[in-house]
């Protein structure tokens, strides 16, 4: 192998693949990354039996070759190189990585022991990368992080013809986002539970391109989903489990008794300030009256904080308590100047959506459902 690649291009490609490699692999060989140089490009790929990532970048290839090296180490080396280009050269046993006067020699891993990457399922349709990235960003914060409850660490993908809905919940909040796409089969209906971390990584790096979604069988536990865009490929096993029926938590129009509209940025800053004195498990109290939302946190024995923000209230006054972190996540996901709260009862879920202007009506294509916390008497 003898090849020259742009440093930034190579570092980004290797770094993306390395993020998916296991930190403590069950089999040491899975810590490796395949580097394949041929036909004017370098392709790097990784696989851990659950998910795979592969990306190709343009390169000056003098001699083709294929090697397996430590993925995370190669990523660290590529980021640290002093010049604008990186040279890769070597044979089966060793690979030299150099840039300017910096030289690294890596021992290769046995390539014949590395598992082959899974094949991409047949394409199901395409979606604009920016639309997909925005939708994932709006729901991913609501996904769980407890690996002992794997169903909650996934994002449910519901395909109904020309629309896709993403749903995520950690049992304390729920996020829903629906967006259009172009399916190959106009009558397609499918459900899949995709690891939230993988979906987030894919959305970030493929946001500027048209993204091809490829969904394999979802009838068995070995279902596979694939993404392709901008020279990158990624696959993942689907999570095997029954996602909870959460759509009933979204308040219906007839059940709403009060709504509040407030400037998103102003509320975010106020929540951040008063939350400084709130204990980790304690709620921030929000009292909504005509024209004002008063935020309170803390208790009489220690520090206390209070701040008022201008709001527009329609309906009855409301007093509710929310986890500050969950509330901030929801506000951050809106991406709009105004935040709109829809309340039913103080102990029932609250729907948070975004508005571009005060004249707009809340849409049904997104929702962030917050479970209120019990307030101290």
Please give a structural write-up.
The protein is α+β, with helices and mostly antiparallel strands. It has helices at about 5-20, 70-80, 130-140, 195-205, 265-275, 325-335, and strands spanning about 1-5, 30-40, 40-45, 50-60, 60-65, 65-70, 85-90, 95-100, 100-105, 125-130, 155-160, 165-170, 175-180, 180-185, 190-195, 210-215, 225-230, 230-235, 260-265, 285-290, 290-300, 305-315, 320, 340-345, 350-355, 365-370. The chain has 3 domains: about 1-115, Roll (DNA Polymerase III, Chain A, domain 2), CATH 3.10.150.10; about 125-245, DNA Polymerase III, subunit A, domain 2 (DNA Polymerase III, Chain A, domain 2), CATH 3.10.150.10; about 250-370, DNA Polymerase III, subunit A, domain 2 (DNA Polymerase III, Chain A, domain 2), CATH 3.10.150. Strand 12 (about 165-170) and strand 13 form a beta hairpin. The chain is elongated.
Short overview:
The chain is α+β, with helices and mostly antiparallel strands and 377 residues long.
Compute the average pLDDT: 93
Q: Distance between the terminal alpha carbons, to the nearest Å?
A: 71 Å
Question: If you compute it from the alpha carbons, what radius of gyration comes out, rounded to the nearest whole angstrom?
Answer: 25 Å
User: Describe the biggest sheet?
Assistant: 12 strands, antiparallel
Write down the overall geometry: elongated
CATH superfamily of the largest domain: DNA Polymerase III, subunit A, domain 2
Strand order of the largest sheet: 15-11-12-13-26-25-24-19-22-21-20-23
- What's the domain count? 3
Give the arrangement of secondary structure elements.
Layout: E1 2-6, H1 7-19, E2 32-38, E3 41-47, E4 51-58, E5 60-63, E6 65-70, H2 71-80, E7 85-90, E8 94-99, E9 102-107, E10 125-128, H3 129-139, E11 154-160, E12 163-169, E13 173-180, E14 182-183, E15 189-195, H4 196-205, E16 210-215, E17 224-229, E18 232-237, E19 258-263, H5 264-274, E20 284-289, E21 292-298, E22 304-315, E23 318-322, H6 324-334, E24 338-343, E25 350-355, E26 366-370
Antiparallel strand pairs: 1-5, 1-7, 2-3, 2-6, 3-4, 4-18, 7-8, 8-9, 10-14, 10-16, 11-12, 11-15, 12-13, 13-26, 16-17, 17-18, 19-22, 19-24, 20-21, 20-23, 21-22, 24-25, 25-26
Helix pairs in contact: 1-2, 3-4, 5-6
């Amino acid at each position: 192998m003898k090849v020259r690649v742009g440093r930034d291009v190579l570092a980004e490609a290797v770094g993306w693949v390395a993020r998916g490699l296991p930190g403590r692999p069950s089999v040491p060989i899975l810590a490796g990354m395949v580097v394949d140089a041929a036909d004017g490009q370098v392709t790097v790929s990784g696989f851990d039996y659950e998910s795979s990532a592969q990306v190709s970048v343009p390169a000056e290839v003098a001699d083709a070759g294929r090697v397996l090296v430590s993925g995370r180490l190669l990523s660290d080396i590529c980021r640290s190189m002093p010049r604008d280009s990186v040279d890769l050269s070597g044979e089966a046993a060793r690979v030299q990585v150099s840039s300017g006067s910096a030289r690294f020699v890596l021992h290769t891993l046995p390539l014949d022991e590395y598992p082959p990457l899974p094949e991409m399922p047949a394409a199901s349709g395409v979606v604009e990368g920016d639309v997909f990235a925005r939708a994932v960003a709006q729901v991913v914060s609501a996904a769980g992080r407890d690996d002992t409850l794997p169903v909650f660490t996934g994002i449910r993908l519901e395909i109904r013809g020309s629309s896709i809905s993403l749903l995520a919940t950690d049992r304390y909040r729920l996020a829903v986002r629906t967006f259009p796409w172009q399916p190959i089969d106009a009558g397609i209906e499918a459900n899949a539970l995709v690891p939230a971390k993988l979906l987030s990584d894919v959305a970030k790096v493929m946001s500027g391109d048209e993204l091809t979604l490829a969904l394999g069988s979802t009838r068995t536990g070995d279902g596979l989903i694939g993404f392709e865009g901008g020279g990158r490929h990624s696959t993942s096993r689907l999570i095997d489990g029954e996602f909870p029926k959460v759509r009933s938590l979204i308040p219906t129009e007839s059940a709403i008794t009060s709504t509040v509209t407030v400037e998103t940025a102003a509320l975010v800053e106020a929540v951040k300030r008063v939350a400084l004195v709130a204990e980790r498990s304690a709620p921030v109290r929000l009292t909504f009256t005509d024209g004002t939302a008063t935020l309170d946190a803390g208790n009489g024995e220690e520090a206390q904080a209070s701040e008022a923000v201008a709001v527009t209230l329609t309906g009855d006054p409301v007093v509710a308590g929310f986890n500050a972190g969950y509330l901030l996540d929801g506000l951050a996901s809106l991406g709009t100047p105004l935040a709109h709260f829809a309340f039913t009862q103080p102990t029932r879920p609250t729907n948070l959506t975004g508005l571009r202007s005060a004249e707009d009506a809340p849409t049904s294509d997104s929702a962030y459902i917050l479970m209120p916390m019990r307030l101290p008497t």
